[in-house]
């Protein structure tokens, strides 16, 4: 008989699970954004998800407004996605070879946005890291321009003034990144055209790429000012630099064609390289770097820019991504748009009623709230940091207490899915006045 069964003594409450986790997992979490550092308390351990709901280890159900940080466009455990995954699992977990489904997913992506080539990777971090390497390989230049408050994953060069968990912890960057790497990343304020003009005038010959979130969603949402993305396209092109368009978060979520559909598609331009993640994996680890053939074909095995992955294009992940995108119909986006607008109206109503000064920043179906910002809104990272961040913790905990799971940081977007139905919205509506009053205190 083995002695490994600890079921009788295993922790079952969120607090006990967190205590046990801290003994074996740094900070008790496998990604810092899951920690409750900025809102306080023990993170909630989830054991089940269905539609718009999550269930925690104590059996409490929450309406989920995080949607696994974006992937769950159709809600949790959508039957078509689950079916596809079951079939893929039955056929084998990983082959380490080419597969028909990776081809179909690449073709599906290339049919939705104007990219010639798609290379699958496993995380958004790999996608942006590869895009930067490709841009350097293509231009034979070293510098990369990024914007303060934008998050592009955790590769060394992209952690300077990053959003998401780096913003939540108020870190300037990360220890362990060499000065040389940091020096090759030029950090500029978002929405600031003159800063870009000055930088390109001074160092244009050295700049390989500008990387931008198609619409920033990792310092809270920041709406790109009218024409800003088009300006990025123009200034990179005229200086021989590439534009890397990070749609890991917004891709096939901000709209049916991502944020590009609301920006480049309308204005008639395309970036050189794109990165996708989240929705294209439907909840499984998949991301992609994509773009123009001349640049993408620099990748190994065709070209000199090396990139690889044991589990890249994993068949189970491909099945989840394919089923998600195949079921992401116009009606799905209409539903998400409607629910997201309804949610915003409910939120604004509750905050206004409670007298809480705030502004809403929106990027397609994505939005977030900032406190104390009604006068000027939030246009860059400095604005995001200057808001009344202290109001978010009581707001968050009141929502949690009333059965709504929000991102545990004010610097994150709110995510809805097509599974958010009337009854989920009613639960949110019932929770919001409590949270608004807590935020007002
Ligand atoms: N780029 C953006 C815009 C993101 O929002 C994220 C993650 O949130 C990433 C890149 C990194 O993706 P991953 O967490 O899969 O490495």
TrEMBL record:
NCBIfam families the record matches: hemL, PRK00062.1
Superkingdom: Bacteria
The keyword Isomerase is assigned to this record: yes
EC number: 5.4.3.8
Annotated keywords: Isomerase
GO molecular function: glutamate-1-semialdehyde 2,1-aminomutase activity
SUPFAM superfamilies reported in the protein's UniProt record: PLP-dependent transferases
Protein name: Glutamate-1-semialdehyde 2,1-aminomutase
A Pfam family recorded for this sequence: Aminotran_3
UniProt keyword annotation of Signal present: no
InterPro entries: 4pyrrol_synth_GluAld_NH2Trfase (IPR004639), Aminotrans_3 (IPR005814), PyrdxlP-dep_Trfase (IPR015424), PyrdxlP-dep_Trfase_major (IPR015421), PyrdxlP-dep_Trfase_small (IPR015422)
Source organism (scientific name): Citricoccus parietis
């Amino acid at each position: 008989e083995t002695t490994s069964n600890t079921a009788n003594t295993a922790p079952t409450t969120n607090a006990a699970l967190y205590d046990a986790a801290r003994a074996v997992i740094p900070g008790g979490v496998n990604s810092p954004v899951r920690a409750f550092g900025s809102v306080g308390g023990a993170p909630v351990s989830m054991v089940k998800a269905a539609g718009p709901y999550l269930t925690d280890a104590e059996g409490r159900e929450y309406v989920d407004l995080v949607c696994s940080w974006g992937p769950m466009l159709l809600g949790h455990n959508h039957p078509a996605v689950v079916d596809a995954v079951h079939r893929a699992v039955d056929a084998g977990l990983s082959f380490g070879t080419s597969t028909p489904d990776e081809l179909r997913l690449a073709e599906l992506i290339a049919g939705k946005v104007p990219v010639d080539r798609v290379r699958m990777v496993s995380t958004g971090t790999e996608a942006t890291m590869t895009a930067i390497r490709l841009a350097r390989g293509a231009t034979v230049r070293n510098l990369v321009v990024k914007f303060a408050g934008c998050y592009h994953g955790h590769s060394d060069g992209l952690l300077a003034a990053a959003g998401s968990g780096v913003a939540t912890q108020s870190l300037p960057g990360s220890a362990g990144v060499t000065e040389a790497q940091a020096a090759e990343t030029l950090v500029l304020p978002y929405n600031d055209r003159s800063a870009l003009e000055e930088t390109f005038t001074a160092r244009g010959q050295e700049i390989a790429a500008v990387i931008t979130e198609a619409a920033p969603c990792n310092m809270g949402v920041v709406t790109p000012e009218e024409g800003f993305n088009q300006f990025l396209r123009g200034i990179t092109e005229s200086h021989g630099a590439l534009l890397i368009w990070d749609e890991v978060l917004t891709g096939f979520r901000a709209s049916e064609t991502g944020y590009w559909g609301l920006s480049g598609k309308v204005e008639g331009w395309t970036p050189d390289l794109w990165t996708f993640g989240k929705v294209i994996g439907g909840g499984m680890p998949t991301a992609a770097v994509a773009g123009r053939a001349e640049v993408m074909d620099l990748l190994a095995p065709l070209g000199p820019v090396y990139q690889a992955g044991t589990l890249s294009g994993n068949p189970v992940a491909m099945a989840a991504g394919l089923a998600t995108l195949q079921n992401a119909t116009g009606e799905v986006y209409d539903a998400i748009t409607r629910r997201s607008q309804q949610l915003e109206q409910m939120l604004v109503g509750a905050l206004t009623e409670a007298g809480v000064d705030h502004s809403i920043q929106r990027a397609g179906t994505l939005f977030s709230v900032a406190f104390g910002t009604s006068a000027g809104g939030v246009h860059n990272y400095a604005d995001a940091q200057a808001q009344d961040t202290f109001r978010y913790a009581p707001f968050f905990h009141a929502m949690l207490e009333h059965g709504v799971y929000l991102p545990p940081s004010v610097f994150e977007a709110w995510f809805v899915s097509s599974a958010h139905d009337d009854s989920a919205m009613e639960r949110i509506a019932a929770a919001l006045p409590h949270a608004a009053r807590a935020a007002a205190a």
